[in-house]
Design a protein that fits this description.
- About 30% of the residues lie in helices and about 35% in strands.
- With about 160 residues, the protein is of the alpha+beta class.
- The protein has a single domain, classed as Aminopeptidase (3-Layer(aba) Sandwich), CATH 3.40.630.
- Helix 1 (about 10-20) packs antiparallel against helix 2.
- The longest helix has 16 residues, at about 25-40.
Length: about 160
């Protein structure tokens, strides 16, 4: 089940983000800031946060997303994590498919995802490629020397080239 994040989910979500070992301390802080903005300012429109529950009704993962400022129909998938205990069970794919359906419902045109080029993120990049997100840009040395920003996009409602 995918649902809006509740205040009572915050501790579990922050623990699962940290448990993935994919986020530096400063990134954990930013992830928490976005969660706090979502939970403490229900009138804001910049960030939405959802969680996915396992069959045992445990929070298995979360996703932060929102419309991209100054665009028409473009959305960002800002942060996503699935707890190590639940990885490899399709929860990440379900979250992304849910987001795609939600954005389509909102008449969105595309979803943008950004990640790192570091070898540790090879599975992340394969994950998005496997869901038909196309790498459209790299900014060399963006995060730090040797760590490029890799940008993926998925066009919604449009046939991909070659179809």
């Amino acid at each position: 089940m995918i649902r809006s994040m509740a205040r009572s989910d915050k501790t579990v979500v922050m623990e699962l983000i940290e448990a993935t070992n994919f986020f530096r301390p400063d990134e954990l802080h930013v992830a928490e800031e976005l969660v706090d903005i979502y939970l403490n300012h229900p009138d804001q429109k910049d960030y939405e946060v959802v969680v996915i529950e396992s069959e045992e009704h445990e929070v298995a993962g979360y996703l932060t997303w929102g419309s991209t400022a100054l665009t028409v129909g473009t959305y960002d998938l800002y942060w996503m994590a699935v707890s190590p205990k639940h990885q490899g069970k399709g929860y990440g794919k379900k979250l992304v498919e849910w987001l795609e359906a939600k954005v389509a419902e909102l008449r969105g045109r595309m979803i943008i995802v950004e990640t790192s080029s570091m070898p540790k993120y090879d599975p992340t990049r394969r994950f998005y490629s496997g869901l038909n997100y196309r790498e459209i840009a790299r900014i060399p040395d963006f995060y730090q020397p040797g760590d490029d920003r890799v940008i993926y996009v998925k066009q919604l409602g449009l046939k991909e080239k070659g179809d």
